[in-house]
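Design a sequence for this backbone.
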């Protein structure tokens, strides 16, 4: 099975960029959802923090050599990370 370390640096960068752009969009959506639910300026400020979602977890597993390239390609193709039931988690930074 082929993993992250078997790709050349350009391929790693291109795929990484695709995954991280999806992670960014996912995090922004979660932030905006939390802001909409906030009922005061104080609560809105508390919405700023760290958001970790399915795409961020996929990226980390990929560079840690825990998932093969084929799985990453499949997730990008279907626009969903299979076997990730956690959704977006929020933690204050």
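Sequence:
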């Amino acid at each position: 099975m082929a993993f992250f370390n078997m790709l050349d640096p350009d391929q790693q960068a291109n795929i990484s960029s695709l995954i991280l752009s999806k992670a960014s969009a996912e995090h922004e959506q979660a932030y905006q959802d939390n802001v909409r639910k906030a009922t005061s300026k104080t609560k809105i400020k508390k919405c700023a923090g760290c958001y970790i979602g399915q795409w961020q977890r996929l990226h980390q597993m990929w560079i840690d050599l825990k998932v093969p390239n084929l799985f990453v390609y499949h997730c990008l193709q279907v626009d969903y990370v299979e076997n990730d039931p956690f959704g977006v988690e929020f933690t204050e930074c």
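The first helix runs from residue 9 to 37.
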